[in-house]
Design a protein that fits this description.
The chain is α+β, with helices and mostly antiparallel strands. The protein has one domain. 41% of the residues lie in helices and 13% in strands. It contains three helices and three strands. The protein has a three-stranded antiparallel beta sheet, with helices on one face. The radius of gyration is 15 Å and the shape is elongated.
């Protein structure tokens, strides 16, 4: 099933790459409610976190990194404490 809240960024701005999550109320278009991501997978993760009750800004931060980037950041932190 297609999620209408997720679409390509080029559909709203031909100069943008990536994907958009639209958190506007139903049947209303509000670009202030658009959240931009590099991948569609990040958009899906963002919506899952929002539906689970996460704060929007916290969910956005959590979804801006790939799994590999998160692992690298954790490894860097671990290396500081060795």
């Amino acid at each position: 099933m297609k999620n209408n809240r997720i679409f390509k960024a080029c559909e709203v701005n031909c100069n943008k790459d990536g994907w958009v999550v639209d958190l506007s109320p139903e049947n209303i278009v509000n670009p202030d409610c658009y959240w931009y991501f590099k991948t569609k997978k990040q958009c899906k993760q963002f919506l899952i976190l929002i539906s689970d009750g996460w704060d929007i800004k916290a969910a956005n931060e959590a979804c801006q990194f790939t799994e590999k980037q998160i692992i690298n950041k954790l490894n860097n932190c671990w290396n500081l404490y060795k």
